[in-house]
Amino acid sequence: MPKVLTPLLELEALGSKCSAGAVAEVLRRHVDKWRREPKKSTLLLNDLAELGKAQVAVQVLKAMRHLQVPVNVFHLNVAIKACRRAKAPVSMALELLESAEQMQVRPDGVTFNAAISACDVHGDWEKAVGLLSDMAAFSPNDISYSAAISACEAAGEWAASLALLQDMLQAQLVHLPAFNGALSACARGSQEAKARQLLTEMGPLQLQADVISYNAGIRACEQSSSWQSALEILFGMAHASTPPDTVSFNTAISGCGKAGQWQRALQLLSLTTPRPDVITYNAAISATAREGQWLWALQLFRDMKQRLKPDAYTHSSAISACARAAKWQMALQLLEGVPSTSAQNAAFSAALGACGEAALWRRAVQLLESMPRRQIQPDQGSFHAVAGAYAQAAQWQRALDLAQLLRTEVAFAAAMTAAERAGHWPTALALLAAMGSAELRADAVCFGAAINACTAWPMALQLLEDMETQAIQLNEVCLSAVVACAPWHIGLQLVEGLGEPGYGAAISACEGASQWVPALCLLSDMSNIRLALHTALVPALRACSAAGRWQEALSLTEHLAATPVDLAAALGIGLMECEQRHAMGPERALHRRLAAQPIAPLAQTALRWAARLRAAQRRQAPLALAPLVAELQRSPAGGTLPYHQAAAMLRHVVSQARAFDVDSIVKALDDFGQDLGWAKFAGGDKGEAMVAALRGCAPMQSDPHAGVLEIGTYWGNSAMRLASALGKAVPITSLELDPVHVAVARCLLAFAGCSSVTVCTGHSQQLLPRFSSCQAVLMDRWGSEYDEDLDMLQKLGLVKEGTLVVADNVLTTAAAGYLWKTGPESGGPARFASVLVAVQEVVDQSEDWLSVSLALPAAAAASAAASAEPAEPPPGLRELQRRSEATRRLVVQKGGEVAAEEMPQLRREALEVLAQHGFAAVNKKSLTGQDVQRGTFAHRHCVIKDQANGADWCFLNNLDLGPQENFIARNSILAEYAVVGFELGYSYENPTALVVWEAQFGDFANTAQVMTDQFISAGEHKWLQQSGLVMLLPHGYMGQGAEHSSCRIERFLQSSDDDEDDIPDFADGFGRRQVQKANWQVMNLSTPANYFHALRRQQHRDFRKPMVVASPKNLFRLRQCVSPLADMELDTRFQRLINERDPEIAAHPDKVERLIFCSGKIYYELAAERERLGLKNVAIITLEQLAPFPFDRVKEVMSKFSAVDEGDGVHPGQIIWCQEEPKNMGPWSYVRPRFVTTAREGFHTDLVMRYIGRRAAASPATGYPKLHAAEQEAILREALLGTSDARAEDNYSVQRPSPLLGHQT
């Protein structure tokens, strides 16, 4: 409690008006008392100092001088103390000290100590040291020295703090805080040796170090990354009778983490006393994060959550651990739990880094854009993380834009890395030059990216010279990059002194030049200087193999057991040499070595049996399959071990299929792929397309011994399908580098009895030169590698007239280079007639393209070459090829998560770019039926005939709007059963095509009812086979008689499998989930926009369902039936139900007394009659999608028009279903119970719906126009007015208001 209340309260009451004059006015009222009792003024200044009111204290001191109140040294000391406590500028305290002479006050040691302490607060060590020198007359004490040393420590001046400590010891002053301050200064300066020396010197001075001293020493070791010294100090504290506290352990754990000793950090965490706090866990998690130990980091995070509350730094550390391991999904999950603090930026930057490590630049951009919505301002680190994501994903254009925006060294380095990964070396060099003009200093990282991007080694050497000129340290990354692009003999000169990357690059250069001797010499040098061989062993193996030095290649495989090398690639090369030279002994040895690796037990079994199968094949002796089947069935699957899926697939086949029965094996394979969501083999329509392409190959038909060459095994699946289709006389050779894949394929083919297939181990680039001829080639690799294989096939003369080349997944993997070389405008050595076939993947049902190319005869190729100048691929295709190569590298490096994220986007980009250059799959849109080219009602005219030559011209294929899909319109005969069956089969085989069949009149579909009932409505339920067939069935009552009015829509609704009593879930996404579960869709559409969206939705969904459209007839020419273009633009979609279209009625739902539901063209007749009568109390709703029933949308409408009478549970109210069809036909029987279910489950009411429509009849419609018109008029009046009988007193008394209409409910 302040001692002098009145002056203090008056001064506080002044607030912001506390000027010098106001302070003097307050003090003037108390001056007489202060003169009598000087202690009162000292107490006031002390209170102001305690409250941290330095400015007021200085003004009080000045006012005391002005009022001639005696001022003494105590007043001066307290005022300077107030400056220190309020952390006021140092100049204020120094001004008070300098004004002491004017105040006739002689400063003492306390005065100087207070001033030095004020300097300590701001780290103004120079002024503190100066004051210490000025107070020599007062004999500085230990407090003076301690304050000055503390000021030096705050400024990081460890040398000055040690000098002051030495002066203090010379003055025979010993003070523990001074030593602690000096220790802290050494810690700030990372002076571990000096700190340990100080701790040692404290003993002889009989000064007992406390916890603060030891913690400062540990912190100095931590800053110097000297984890051993930190542990020595930590465990030495117990011997010095000073038990460590939590801070001691925290600092030591942090030191271990910085030194990469994460295991030591975890041990210290378990020893922490009294107990770990949040900072302890943060340090341990950071230690594991630094080394990429994300599982340990997450385990610590979970342990911590059970005891403490993680803060933002905890989340940041755990996210960083996931980032280093490219576990971006886990990082984003952790980000959701980050508390709202100032440290959120660090957590978001770590999550952005996780996306960057995984090359998921879109996720990174989305995360960056979400930060402002969470009230987090992105900092420079956040933008740099996005730039890193661009670099990882080779998005050089986006990285360039960001670099020009940020204009920082980090952003430019990321842009150059992105350009290098994308193969844009001019961009990388231009960015390097731009950094100089932007006054940014390029470092070794920037030069390394530019050198990596160089394709010419002289340019790379020039960049090295530029680095030396700019005094930039040459690092191994830059030198290794030069070695990689230079000729092998230049690389030999530069490799000296480099590490594993440099030697690996030099050996790769030797491999490319088939220089096996230098490669082995470099490998020997690496061994002599104790470098790890894992980066160089495989290139050396390939160099020996390419030079035909197979003995040397086999000798190199001896080093594989102790090297963390890709065993599949390395042993595959060794096994290739053994198989080609029939070296049985080494081959068995390599198989044993591979089987001893930690792979799935089933895969080990396959390897052993594959070796036995090869031995039996050489001896031409049969091998019993029963033992193979028995061993595969009892071997464990292997959980998550490598190759467990392939091995499980093999076991599934031998368990579920019959030996030598290819059909049962194919079914087992397809079932396996569907059940596990695994599409590692060609199945479904893709497999059928491959077989059809090769079976139709002319050389296969003329020469039964023409061979098929397959690059990539599909685990033997595709070779088995081909062997079954082509017969045993056609030899098939399958090439595969991975020996486990080869073993599984050999076992599968032996089980299927495909003796015409030979599976060879080895890479295609090494095996193709050993073949002399082939008539067909099937390729299944990454698309950017297809053109490499095609180049080698042409170079070796394996592609000649009539050779068929089939390439899979040319869309998904963006095989732009290959498609250009097999396209009509290619300037390559061979010309092809090519077609792209749209196929569907087995598992994800996504579209892909199969490229089928036939080499032209020499004359045709020469003619094509003469008629077209050799051309380079256009820039768009070149860029797509580079994008494909970059994505391939990412998928190889980062794995499945990146593939799942990047591949769909690559496919979308490829689809857009390839379409721009005229590449498109065949038969994307087709319309067949009776008179569909003209249109039965003269409404289409999509195909016209040239009367001169009879040629067809389809304007839909000539829109001149850029690249477009192919549209086919074919008139069919009046044999609906046959035509619908054909179109259904076509929709099965080409699920990416929009297949439409249109009847001339709706009831013509009667003769195709067998197809409808047996296949279309129930096909998916019976055979799990989806179809997207669209049936357009003209429907509508226009007085044309019984045979041309109704498509019998009730039959289709009766076959719909949604239960009328099923309780619907009205949650979000109900409509999509409902269609996915249904067997088909039944529509009666009333607007052009909805018809457009129905067809578009049918094509763009990721699943397929048949769709029956009761298409209108008179609406083609009805002026009211129009849709603005805005209804078909972006952000518009199909409407299952269209609400009231009159804006005035829709705006006042409380005034609506009658609610009419209908479907199809009768809406326009009802709306026209309502307008004629001037009714504003009747709302009309159209159900566009009848099945599956839109429960959720009907509920919304009924909620909106809640004022409408629903009836009393016995008699109907004013909710009406109106239809043109007789009561026993049309949608009434289908919709009625579903309206009741909607009311029951949505509103807990018993709805009795009113029926308005024709009475029950045997015939769909009358043949008398006058009777038709009378019926139609009665329907409209009854629906809108409630009765067609003006004499009726109420609606309920009329059971049949008109003899033309049906009974009421």
Automatic annotation (TrEMBL):
Domain of life: Eukaryota
Single GO MF descriptor: thiamine pyrophosphate binding
GO annotation, biological process: tricarboxylic acid cycle
Pfam family membership, one: Transket_pyr
Cofactors that this protein relies on: thiamine diphosphate
All residue ranges annotated as the Transketolase-like pyrimidine-binding domain in the record: 901-1118
PROSITE patterns, sorted: PPR
Keywords per UniProt: Oxidoreductase, Thiamine pyrophosphate
CDD domains recorded: AdoMet_MTases (cd02440)
GO cellular component: mitochondrion; oxoglutarate dehydrogenase complex
NCBIfam families registered for this protein in UniProt: PPR (TIGR00756)
Similarity annotation: Belongs to the alpha-ketoglutarate dehydrogenase family.
Name of the molecule in the record: Transketolase-like pyrimidine-binding domain-containing protein
